[in-house]
């Protein structure tokens, strides 16, 4: 069983849709690993993603930036891809609204995957992020998604750019 302090991602790529269940807080602890998974699914030509957030306790800016980046990529695909967030709690809805992401992500409070199909899901391994570039990219995606986010994340972006230059 995974460490309850770290987020757990259960994933199920099936037919033409990738379903992701997030248990716990979605944050930087395995955002790099999660982004690698998303890149792999995109390379396999998956263009429909469903995120079941019923058990998600919150999201940090790194993870939100990954969602924003995925939405931007899917929006630019031919044919158009889709990203659906479902079963959101009120605090996550408010967070998305505050960052202006609610206008670019499809949100459905109830609709989602069958909760009895746990055996079809596999767990992504938790590992700490090793690549500051991915964290930087995630925060830059938040600014691309909504220019109003620039002031909120400029210090993080500047810090990460300096970290990358030193390495």
What would you say about this model in short?
This protein is α/β, with parallel strands linked by helices and 167 residues long.
Which terms would index this structure?
167 residues, 41% helix, alpha/beta, 5 helices, 7 strands, Transcription Regulator spoIIAA
Question: If you had to describe this structure to a student in words, what would you say it looks like?
Answer:
There is one protein chain. The protein is an alpha/beta fold. It has helices spanning 31-43, 61-75, 90-98, 132-145, 150-166; strands at 8-14, 17-26, 48-52, 56-59, 82-86, 106-108, 122-123. 31% of the residues are buried.
Query: Topology as H/E string?
Result: EEHEEHEHEEHH
- Total tally of structural domains: 1
List unreliable stretches of 5+ residues. Answer: none
Mean pLDDT: 84
Oligomeric state of shown chains: single chain
CATH architecture: 2-Layer Sandwich
Helix content: 40-55%
CATH class (first level) name:
Alpha Beta
Tell me the radius of gyration: 15 Å
What percent strand? Answer: 15-25%
End-to-end distance: 35 Å
Helix count equals: 5
How many beta-strand segments?
Answer: 7
* Coarse shape: globular
Largest sheet: 7 strands, mixed
CATH homologous superfamily? STAS domain
Could you please say which CATH topology applies here? Answer: Transcription Regulator spoIIAA
Q: Which structural class do you get from the secondary structure elements?
A: alpha/beta
């Amino acid at each position: 069983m995974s460490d309850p302090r770290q987020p757990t991602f259960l994933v199920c790529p099936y037919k033409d849709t990738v379903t992701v269940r997030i248990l716990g807080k979605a944050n930087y602890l395995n955002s790099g690993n999660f982004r690698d998974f998303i890149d792999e699914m995109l390379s396999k030509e998956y263009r429909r993603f469903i995120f079941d957030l019923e058990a998600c306790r919150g999201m940090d800016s790194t993870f939100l930036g990954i969602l924003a980046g995925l939405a931007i990529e899917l929006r630019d695909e031919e044919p158009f891809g889709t990203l659906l967030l479902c079963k959101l709690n009120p605090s996550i809805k408010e967070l998305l609204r505050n960052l202006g992401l609610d206008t670019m992500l499809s949100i459905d409070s109830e609709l989602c995957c069958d909760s009895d199909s746990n055996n079809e899901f596999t767990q992504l391994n938790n590992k700490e992020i090793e690549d500051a570039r991915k964290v930087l990219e995630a925060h830059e995606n938040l600014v691309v998604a909504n220019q109003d986010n620039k002031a909120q994340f400029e210090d993080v972006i500047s810090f990460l750019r300096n970290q990358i230059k030193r390495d």
